[in-house]
Design brief:
The chain is mainly α. It contains 3 helices and no strands.
Length: 92
């Protein structure tokens, strides 16, 4: 069985240093581009709103929309809050 030797000589002989520096530069450049895109996104959105007005992005109100139903009992959020309060009080 051949024994594996780990040393910097093997890294230098296989162009490992140049390869790692190139990889780090590629990743750094991609991260810079993503951060610049995120920083310029509000300005890009404002520019696109001038070209395509926001009213063109959606269809508007629907004429046959059903009226909202009025609930007479407790809402789901109130039921969950009561259950959590009961469990918190009676934990043990």
């Amino acid at each position: 069985m051949q024994q594996m030797l780990f040393s910097w000589d093997n890294v230098v002989a296989g162009n490992g240093v140049a390869l790692s520096i190139t990889g780090m530069c590629i990743v750094f450049t991609a991260l810079i581009l993503v951060s610049v895109y995120i920083a310029l996104l509000p300005k890009l959105a404002a520019f696109l709103n001038k070209i395509i007005p926001p009213s063109a992005h959606h269809s508007g109100p629907v004429a046959n929309a059903p009226a909202p139903q009025v609930q007479t009992g407790p809402s789901e959020a109130e039921i969950v809050a009561a259950a959590v309060a009961y469990l918190h009080k009676n934990k043990g």
